[in-house]
Amino acid sequence: MFGPSPFYDGNFEKATVNVLSRNTSLRYLCLSGDFDKPEYEMGTSLFESLKNNSTLSTIQIYFNSLGNACASELAKVLRNNTSLNFVYIGGEYLGDDGVASIAEALMDNTTVRTLGIIGRNMTPEAGRALGEMLRHNTTITCLSLFHGNIGDSGAQGIASGLSQNTTLDKIEIENSCIDDEGMCALARSVAKNRSLQVLTITYNNISEVGKRAIIDACAKSQSLNHL
Q1: Within a 10 A sphere around the Cβ of 16, how many other Cβ atoms?
Q2: How many other C-beta atoms lie within 10 A of the C-beta of residue 215?
Q3: Greatest alpha-carbon span in the chain
Q4: What is the pLDDT of residue 1?
Q5: CA separation for the pair 67, 159 (Å, rounded)
Q6: CB-based burial label for 207 (10 Å; 0-12, 13-18, 19+)
Q7: Which pLDDT belongs to residue 153?
Q8: Residue environment code for 90-126, b if the CB has 16+ CB neighbours within 10 A, otherwise e
Q9: pTM of structure
Q10: Domains of the chain (ranges plus CATH)?
């Protein structure tokens, strides 16, 4: 299901919820759109309607007004859902609280394989929450983060989780305000990790120091084959 862009409103949401509440065969739900009212959080009732869904395998949703409340509702879905394996969520107002809710829900989740987050209000706290998730989760193989202010502290949190993770084979951290200190922390974990195959770190704030650390990590890694 694809939503028409750029104009969504509450009526569209109600119609979508009505369809989802009756549908028993839909596997892919992909919606995106822009709103005139930034305070309007599209999708809260949408995620509420998915709590008992057992057919969807893919959710890919981006609304510019999507924020922490929607992410918290998605987290409730993830705690009990056994069919979703691909989850992408993004919004201009998605920040630490929403990401932390998702990360906590995924600690014990055994079906999600791919997690992607676009959250322009993410700070280092979001990175630390995701790092803690990586310590516990044993099924996610791909983690993608875009357009947040993860920073060095957040990157260090992710690196700490990565050092204990044995299932992740791809990680993308793009445009996330990471400097050399955070990149060096990631490099140390990458060098020791034996499952990671793909690392994407474009559009961050690293100098030759950070670049050299990553290059050296690639040389030491027994699994990484794409940078």
Answers
A1: 20
A2: 12
A3: 55
A4: 45
A5: 26
A6: exposed
A7: 97
A8: bbbbbbbbbbbbbbbbbeebebbebbbbbbbbbbbbb
A9: 0.90
A10: 25-219 (3.80.10.10)
